[in-house]
Amino acid sequence: MLTRRHAIRLGLTTGAVGAVGAAGGLFQTLTSGGSANAATAAGAPAVTPFAVPLPAPKVLAPYRRTSTADYYAVTMSRTSHQILPGTRTDVLTYNGTFPGPTIRARKGRTAVVRQINALDMPASVHLHGGSNPVEHDGGMTDTIAPGRSRTYVYANEQVGATLWTHDHAHHMESEHVYRGLSGLYLLGDKAEDALGLPSGRYEVPLILRDAQFDAAGRMVYTMDDAENRTTILVNGAPWPYMKVEARKYRFRMLNSCNLRIFILCLNDGSQVTQIGSDGGLLPAPAATPVLVLSPGERADFVVDFSKYAPGTQLTLQNMLGPGPTELVGQIMRFDVGEKSPDTSRVPDVLTTLPALPKPAVERSFELRMDEPGTGDKAYINGKTFDAGRIDTNIKWGDTEVWTVTNTSTTIPHNFHTHLVQFRILERDGQPVYPAEAGLKDTVLLFPGQTARLQLTFDTHKGVYPYHCHMIDHSAMGMMAQMKIS
Which CDD domains does UniProt cross-reference here (predicted)? Predict the structure, then answer.
């Protein structure tokens, strides 16, 4: 459970209010209702909360299958999509959908994805959380020119996990992701299948993001603007509702925002059961009343709706700003129906993580950016990103411990590594809470916080980035490169 003690350890106290701009306090008292015209405060056409059903992201079918591989084709293009009711918005898309289609891959089967760039600007497709060779990682400068295509090959040798794809073209990634270039990549495996978790139509993706719209329904992009992106979208729809049966559901949640951190809870205060994070399943289920997700992080969790009477309406709420409570304080609503047969379960043991090897090297990293009004640069260890510079040299096969500190005074950051999943050893000298006990590739750090991470570099060699995944910050320079050789 995420107790108040854990919240303090995460920095989720009133002392962090200024750091995230939360209006009226960090832990807000929220109701299940909201403004009848929820988007008006953001200058957009009016939206009635919980008036549109939750869309299901399209699952991309392979155009070819062999005994060992699945082949996909994806076109990046500019199109229009109805996000706000009654109006169409220009967005950047994978295969014309917002968000992009979901690829359901399997451990041990190679996914071959041909990405066709029909945009008028370069793009790079990164499989976030994937362990892939450099040429298939989708790096910042390894871009696809307009009118050209590139084939990415994913061997899928890692354990099952909730991964995602997004643009990574440096200095453009922030706006490209904001305007829609992202999609889920759900990697399954036989060990997970055998657990009996909710599956099929009871396994539901929830892709969270925020946006700002103008009076014409156009998406407004301004670099490093967390304050005005106050329309909350789930699977591309504003404040949707979902009809659920009174039984267990598994939710695969992604925070695909550029900047917004979510602290999520059900409005009745009941607990959910978190079963996984970035890199796959947790060792054991973690009952918690709160889910904490910074940009790029994923949470895999189960809600048992069987304890609710038919007709119950539950709101998924957000306890963290910035923005008005009636806008950012609510995410979606669950409308509970009749009971249905349910043979799914959540076992007491989900997976066994490998023992932590003895580290050969310890390193320290400081994340900082210019405070508001003092500049527009962001740094790792005092340096902005330089594609021609190697910041960290790593011996292949080594295990290292990285101590990462957010030295900003008022600004939260997070820290994401390409190629490797890590284990969080501690936060500010204290053990992590159970939901952070699994494999991670992104860790949240509020101002002044420190986390110690253990990483093993025993898969691929080459040059990979690490960066803040509050993606506007990485576009401002908070990114560096490691060379594994």
Answer: CuRO_3_CueO_FtsP
> What fold is seen in the domain 64-193?
Immunoglobulin-like (2.60.40)
Angle (CA) 415 482 103, round 5°: 60
β-bridge partners, 246: 339
- Burial class from Cβ neighbours inside 10 Å (0-12, 13-18, 19+) for residue 38 reads buried
Question: Residue 91 corresponds to which amino acid?
Answer: V
**How far, in Å, CA of 127 to CA of 467, rounded?**
15
Q: Sign of the CA dihedral 111, 112, 115, 116?
A: negative
Query: What is the overall mean pLDDT for the chain?
Result: 92
Pick the CATH number of 4-10+19-51+198-339 from 3.40.50.920, 3.30.70.260, 2.50.20.10, 2.60.40.420: 2.60.40.420
pLDDT band with cut points at 50, 70 and 90 for residue 25 = very low
SS3 content of the chain, % helix, strand, coil (to 5): 10, 40, 50
Residue 133 CA to residue 273 CA, distance in Å, equals 34
Rounded to whole angstroms, how far apart are CA atoms 162 and 138? Answer: 18
For the chain, counts of helices (H) and of strands (E): 6, 31
Query: What phi-psi label fits residue 171: left (phi over 0), alpha (psi between -120 and 50 degrees) or beta?
Result: left
**What's this model's pTM, rounded to 2 decimal places?**
0.93
Cα separation, 323 vs 227, in Å, equals 6
402 and 364 Cβ atoms separated by less than 8 Å:
yes
Q: Which residues contact 194 (CB under 8 A, 6 or more apart)?
A: none
